[in-house]
Amino acid sequence: MDPLITAAGQALAAGDPLGALKRVALRDDAPALALRGIAMAQLGDLDRAKALLRKAARAFGPKAALARARCVVAEAEIALVSRDLSFSGKALDMARGTLERHGDEANAAHAQHLEVRRLLLLGRLAEAEGALAKFDAAVLPAALRAAHELVIAGIAMRRLRTQKARAALVDAERAARQAGIPALMAEVESTCHVLNTPAARLIAPGEDRPVLLEEVEALLASGVLVVDACRHVVCDADTAVSLTTRPVLFALARALGEAWPADVPRSTLLARAFRAKHADESHRARLRVEIGRLRFKLRTLSDVSATTGGFALAPRRARKVIVLAPPVEDEHATVLAFLADGESWSSSALSLALGASARTVQRALDALASAGKVQSYGRGPARRWITRPLPGFTTTLLLPGPLPSG
Questions:
Q1: What would the pLDDT profile of 239-256 be if each residue is shown by its tens digit?
Q2: What is the pLDDT of residue 321?
Q3: How far, in Å, CA of 37 to CA of 44, rounded?
């Protein structure tokens, strides 16, 4: 065993990339190239890291299957950090199989965690939970155990299970301290901050205030009728009706929710739903049609009753109606929700994560760039978009995930 390679590997495991580079920076053999690549990734030079790892994989050759598999896993982690969500899941799965056959359980578990984290970013929570269920966290090394608990916390927050998220973060902090890796401890601290930052605005009769994720969870379980403007859902503790693909209906529902228990004049509804400054008979006819559609969609939750002045919500089970609005309203809030994690994203990765067309995402990025909210670097396929996390609120409710359904 080469002592310098061993020492460099131990330095990387302890989160000391500079210590690793001191030992292998001038070497070009395959193990040194791989370690240099991982060190550069830890230092943030992801392009250089990717090039070094690919060079190392070629240098190892086809006979060093285990070493090549480790390079594939490292490159997949770089792709995830750089938000390249199109990396080959098949290649990662083959690498994980090779690691398992050679008894490298730690790296095999790390490969599986990378796939779980990718599923979490894409909002595929059920698949992520299914993959996590295969792990026995007790046998994982400290660093992987911390990563495991962070994923559990991420899923729990997206499902609005804050107690489970807090418990997972306590375990993650303990494991991160045991691992002694500063970057991992910082990631745990950053995730904890999400739970203590306003996640939405509560709009109800006589109040308009920020609420934490924990309060949102309590509201959704309390039996009130919630018009959720973060996810375009109308729900109570038992039933959720998605209006994500029906923006006009949701605009009407939100206007009615904000005014409850009062009614909303027809002129106000026309302005909110159709942006009609001067309504004519065609607008009023369309309003009657859309109100009928909204009444049908919400039939299990509330009636939409006509009044002398306009229309009003009449909940069937709930005694109160509230509106949950994003802490900061923005036309492209969902794009900002992804960029607010502080990582650099390509427009193609954002398109994949949002389930939107590339052109739609690019238009949103251009508009945000014009407003000075995001910036890009690089050109062509290497172009990345980034912004600082918006101060004072978390974007958890804006990310893709399951609808609240009790």
A1: 889 998 898 999 999 999
A2: 93
A3: 11
Could you tell me which residues come within 8 angstroms of residue 185 by beta carbon, excluding any fewer than 6 positions away?
173, 176, 177
Rounded alpha-carbon distances, angstroms, from residue 382 to 46, 130, 146, 379:
12, 33, 31, 5
Separation CA 147–CA 274 (nearest Å): 47
Q: How far apart are CA 219 and CA 225, in angstroms?
A: 9
Q: How far apart are the first and last CA of the chain?
A: 57
What region does 97 belong to: left with phi over 0, alpha with psi -120 to 50, or beta? Answer: alpha
Q: How confident is the prediction for the chain on average, in pLDDT?
A: 84
Contact 216, 160 (CB under 8 A): yes
CA-wise closest residue to 33 among 68, 62, 1, 3: 68
The distance from CA 97 to its chain's CA centroid, rounded to whole angstroms, is: 28
Q: Would you call 386 helix, strand, or coil by DSSP? A: strand
> What pLDDT band is residue 391 in, cutting at 50, 70 and 90?
very low
Model confidence over 197-213: pLDDT tens digits? Answer: 888 889 988 888 998 98
Q: Can you list the domains of the chain with their CATH numbers?
A: 3-195 (1.25.40.10), 200-325 (1.10.10.10), 333-389 (1.10.10.10)
Nearest CA-CA partner of 13 in 148, 145, 150, 142 = 142
CA–CA gap between residue 117 and residue 156 (Å, rounded): 13
Flag whether pLDDT at 403 surpasses 60: no
Cα separations (Å) of 317 from 225, 235, 263, 269, 294? Answer: 8, 11, 19, 25, 17
